[in-house]
Amino acid sequence: MCIQLQIIWEREFEVNTETTKDTECFEKGNNLIGPSYLCGKANTMNRIQKLFQDRTEKVIPFITAGYPSKDRTVEMVFAAEESGAAMVELGMPFSDPLADGPIIQEASQIAIDNGVNIQWILEVTTEIRKQSEIPLALMGYINPIIKYGTDKFIKDCKNAGVDGLIIPDLPPEEAKEIVKMAKKAGICIILLVAPNTADERIREISSMAGTLIYCVAILGITGGEGAQESELKKYLKRVEEYSNCPFVVGFGIKERVDVIEINRMAHGAVVGSAIIEQLKNSNEPIAAIRNYIHQLTRGIE
Q1: Whole domain around residue 176: which residue ranges?
Q2: Is residue 211 part of a domain?
């Protein structure tokens, strides 16, 4: 699986950055730089764009929608926000998750068994939006989106208040149309780069994404050990140099010390499998989310 993911994201491709001509600055190191191609219409920014205008410490939890039960997902998002989460990724469960390890795979299967589907996730997002303005990104795989209908999916995401989409198994070569549709709807497509992504390809992928890219910290699946510190620093230094937009880092982040270190090198830390582990080992999912996110964000004002 990890080899397949690596191949998908290491193909050569050409990027057309003419679909969106808006420009904006973002903070790179201690400096504001630009241009950065933005999603959405001229002079408008969605919640993700606003969040990443400033280089502040950010914790971004991943929550599998409908796990451990459907009736607690909305409350878990609120608990994460109350505990300092800057943004939330909602996982759209899929039976064959290419990038996910056994921890998230198990959570996804339970959510599927609970009856979770895209329609229900969008209803949940709509419910969250009634009470919260926290940036929300949906993370999932392309097959369910195609089955749902790509155009309908983008329109319904917009109406539900979704800010971003992460689709790990959609290579950039095949993403141009959905990127165009999403940007028109004011939704950010968050593309992925990996440690073996070439410098120029980082530049191309970041220009195509425009607002945010997701740095996979390891060549592997979620839930594994984190990257070696020296190699991670070299990798993220390259991303810092060649990316045309902010970037967050995921895979292998578990502790407060990981969050601090990642935020020194990137624009945010994504925590996924470790959260699912907390939920798996607790009978009180809301309290588990609240307490764990608080541990990760301790010291954030």
Answers
A1: 2-296
A2: yes
Q: Which of 258, 251, 290 is nearest to 273 (CA)?
A: 251
Question: 25-77 pLDDT, tens per residue?
Answer: 555 654 444 434 455 444 478 999 999 999 999 999 999 999 999 999 999 99
What's the CATH number where 194 sits?
3.20.20.70
**How remote is the C-alpha of 57 from its chain's centroid?**
16
100 is catalytic: yes
**What is the bridge-based pairing of β-strands 26-28 and 31-33?**
antiparallel
- Residue 163 bears catalytic tag: no
Q: Catalytic pick from 22, 57, 89, 156?
A: 89
Whole-model pTM: value is: 0.85
On the CB side of 45, CA atoms within 13 Å amount to 17
What total of structural domains would you count in the chain?
1
> Of residues 100, 169, 258, 261, which has the active-site annotation?
100
